[in-house]
Amino acid sequence: MHISDGVLPATVTIASYAAALAGAAWSLKQVRNEDLPKIAVVTSSFFVASLIHLPFGPTSVHLILPGIVGALLGPASFISIALGLFLQSILFQFGGLTALGANTLMMGVPALFCGLLFRGIRGTTALRHGIAGAICGGLGTALAAMILAGFLTTAGEDFFGVAKLALAAHVPVFIIEAGVSAFAMLFLFRVKPELLGTGRYGG
Amino acid sequence: MIDGSRRIAVKKQVTASFFAMAAIFFLATSPMAEGPAGPLEQAPEAQTTSPGQCQELVALLAEQDQKNSREFRQIKREIAALAQEVAEPGMREILGGVGYIFGLVGVAAYVVSRNKKGGEGGH
Q1: How high is the ipTM of this complex?
Q2: Which of A74, A94, A159, B15 could cross-link A153 (Cys pair, CB 3.0–4.6 Å)?
Q3: Neighbours of A112 (CB within 10 A)
């Protein structure tokens, strides 16, 4: 789920860059010093996750992990995703450099939203953490697909057609993502609960 | 990375193409060689031999063509596979990216720790 170079019109490219930069600056301000190592680890996971292809029926899908990034980093997830996408685009040619702003918004906004949601619905039990992880994982990917459809609309596509296509193509991703996020949250809750839900929004 | 059978096939093809070339050369040169000779005497003989020769040649060429196109298809497939392999990021890019991330965050941590030292007078 990456937008390539030259797909979006120039105004949208510039506007998305501006929005992404503002988001990154805001996100950078929320970073607490003691969270830096965690950010490094989560950013690396996000960076590598899209290379791990999981076989699903006749095709294979790769993880995007906005849910897990949001749940672990909270407001710092936006800067983490911006960094991960930047390195992906220069090292792997995943998505173009000019579309970096749009791509960052596409994955960063769902991550921020998932972080907020996770903080709201995670309870105090392992089961609730697992359920919250599943919801965030699935919803984060679905949101990213919706934003992708929104961006492609500005390139002259019909929104509902693209949205339907993007959602249908990513149904296996939602399922796998929800499962992986649920297991990750369950595992982290058991072994290192202090990693979860740190960082405050609007602090 | 040509395995044994394919190498044999290539060798066979080379010999086949050599024969085909020789045949074409013969066909091309023979009228010229016969040209200066008496046309009245040579003409009937050429007419009787050329249809059979031509058919043989056409069959040979068709077979040759088939072989070549099969080989080309194989090579195209190999090129496509190679291109895909090249396009996929390798271990070097992945480790490089992870290194970048840790390095950048490390620099950030360093800056933070320096600021702390300056502000609080030692850490």
Answers
A1: 0.75
A2: A159
A3: 25
For the full predicted model, state whether its pTM sits above 0.80.
Answer: no
- Determine the distance in angstroms separating the CA of B115 from the nearest CA of chain A, rounded to an integer: 11
Q: Give the whole-angstrom CA distance, residue A143 versus residue A113.
A: 9
Query: Quick one: which of A14, A22, A200 has its CA closest to A109?
Result: A22
Distances (CA, A) of A23 to A77, A131, A167: 10, 28, 25
Compute the distance between CA of residue A202 and CA of residue A104 in angstroms, rounded to an integer.
20
Tell me the pLDDT tens digit for each residue of A141-179.
888 888 888 888 887 777 778 777 777 877 888 888 899
On whether any CB of chain A is under 8 Å from the CB of B97, the answer is yes
pLDDT tens digit sequence for A113-133: 999 898 888 877 888 888 888
Cβ separation A44–B102 shorter than 8 A: yes
